[in-house]
Amino acid sequence: MLTDILLVLAGYLFGSISSAIIVCRLMGLPDPRSEGSGNPGATNVLRVGGKKAAAITLVGDLLKGTIPILAGRLLGAGPETLALIGAAAFLGHLYPVFFGFKGGKGIATGFGVLLGWSWLACLLTAITWLLVAKLSKISSLAALTAFLLAPLFVWFTTGQWWYTVTMAILTAITYWRHRSNIRNLLAGTESRIGERKA
Predict the structure, then answer these.
(1) How far apart are alpha carbons 146 and 23 in whole angstroms?
(2) 98 lies in a domain?
C-alpha cells in the first residue's frame, strides 16, 4: 500500500517537470508562458522556438507519462495503481508543483500515459490525431478528436476497466483545459499548426 502511494506521488512529481520551460531556458528561447498562446507545451514551443525545440519538448512530455507507469510495472503495481500513476503524471503536467501549478494542456503527457498502458491504444490515438491534423491543420481539433476516442481505444485494446475509466476522466479534463480552444473553434478563429499568435 505504501509503495503504491509513493509511486502515485512520484508520478505526480515526475509529471510536474515542465519540458517546455526547461527546453526554452536551455536553448535561450522566450518563456513559453509569456509568448504565443502562453501555454507551456510543445505546440506553443513550436510557435516561439521552432521544430527542434518543439520536438524535444514533445518527447520530454511524452516520457513524463510513460516512465512512471513503466516504473510501476517493474515494481509489480496492479492495474488500479498504474491507472492512478498515469492520472497523477497527467495532473502533474497540468498543475506542476515546481512551476506555480501552471502547466500545459496535457496532450503529449496523455499520449505518454496511453503508451504506458497500451502501446496499441496509443498508436490508434496517434493515428487519429495525425489524420485530423492533416485534414484540418488545427492541433487542438486533432487533440480533442483523438482524446474523445482514446477511452474506446483503451477498452478495445486492454479490456481494462481501470484504464478506461481513468482515460475517460483525463479526456474530460482535457476538454476543460481546452475550453478556450473550443470557443475559438466554434468561432472559426483557432490558430493553425505552426501559426504564431500575437
Answers:
(1) 26
(2) yes
Identify whether the C-beta of residue 65 lies closer than 8 Å to the C-beta of residue 89: yes
Radius of gyration of the chain from Cα atoms? 16
pLDDT in tens, 31-45: 888 887 778 888 788
Domain that holds residue 128: 2-187
Q: Is there a domain that residue 192 lies in?
A: no
**pLDDT recorded at residue 197:** 53
Q: Which residues have C-beta within 8 Å of that of residue 12, sequence separation ≥ 6?
A: 88, 89, 91, 92, 97
How many helices (DSSP H) and strands (DSSP E) are in the chain? 10, 0
**pLDDT tens figures, 20-32:** 999 999 888 888 8
Between CA 126 and CA 147 the distance in angstroms is 9
Which pLDDT belongs to residue 198?
47
